[in-house]
Amino acid sequence: MARANAHDRLRRLELIAVQLKQDAHCTVRGLAQQHGVSTRTIARDLALMREQGMQIDADRGRGGGVRLDRNWGVGRLNLAYAEAVDLLISIAVAEQMKSPMLLANLASVRRQLVASFSPEKRKRIDRLKSRIMIGVTASTFVQASASAPPKRVVQSVHQAFVDQRVLDLRYQREDGVISNREIEPHYLVLKYPIWYVVALDRLRNEPRSFRCDRMLSASMQEVRFKLLPKEKLQPSLVFDDQSM
Predict the structure, then answer these.
(1) What is the CA 162 to chain-centroid distance, rounded?
(2) 52-96, pLDDT tens digit by residue?
(3) Hey, where are the domains in the chain?
(4) 152-183 pLDDT, tens digit each
(5) Residue 3: enclosing H or E segment and its boundaries?
(6) Contact 125, 85 (CB under 8 A)
(7) Torsion of CA 75, 76, 81, 83, to 10 degrees
(8) Is the peptide bond before 193 cis (omega within 30 degrees of 0)?
(9) The domain at 2-68 falls in which architecture?
(10) Residue 236 to residues 84, 106, 149, 196, 239: CA-CA distances in angstroms?
(11) Is 0.85 topped by the overall pTM?
């Protein structure tokens, strides 16, 4: 029973926080009625939320409202490690693209994120960033033939790239021929807006580049691979978009 009560309270606190963040007009009495508890219970909930750092203001008098300070949340961002890594890599890509409209505050955001990591994790992120390259913008011909790859494919490719795991791929070439591939995704290349995976094709034992939007399906294996230097994959780094 105690566990159920604790779960109910946590859920109620989450819902109250959502209501306050949405800037809705709330009163202690109204919250009590909505959640089926007493006004005293809501008062205790609000007190706990204040102790946790939420800046909750209350108007005095009967029917007074309860609200969240408009500035609360600015500068507060709780990211999982994987989310923070993705954000840092996205910032690195934006910086490499040298877009002045995007770079105004990115350096400050990057410094704050990097400062939150241990030295070992910073090295890991630097290694990931070194595996992402920015090429010239894709030709109008290539852009006209491009389409967004399935979300599951993107997730599998992303995870295999980060974890250095072998990827099973079902791939469609420009001429429509479909084949099954087993690849090691060593590097990513962005030729805006098209992403390519520079990989070692294990079935052919030679480097290949694969357009992400031509990947029909992808699944990650448990097998890991050792990262190859770019020189070993050089033939696939110089490629003709139309032939991939």
Answers:
(1) 12
(2) 777 787 776 555 688 776 666 555 556 677 888 888 888 888 877
(3) 2-68, 81-130, 140-243
(4) 999 999 999 999 999 999 999 988 999 999 99
(5) helix 2-21
(6) yes
(7) -80
(8) yes
(9) Orthogonal Bundle (1.10)
(10) 30, 31, 21, 10, 6
(11) no
Length of the chain: 244
Q: Which two tokens mark 176? A: 């429509």
Decide: 212 and 229 in contact? Cβ < 8 Å. no
Short-list 172, 81, 168, CA closest to 128: 81
Quote the pLDDT of residue 91.
83
With 70 as the cut, is the pLDDT of residue 10 above it? yes
Alpha-carbon distance of 164 to 141, in angstroms, equals: 32
| Helix (H), strand (E), coil (C) string for 154-208 | HHHHHHHHHHCEEEEEEEECCCCCEEEEEEEEEEEEEECCEEEEEEEECCCCEEE
Nearest to 29 by CA among 39, 40, 37: 39
Which string of b and e fits 66-104 if b means at least 16 CB within 10 Å?
bbbeeebeeeeeeeeeeebbeebbebbbbbeeeeeeeee
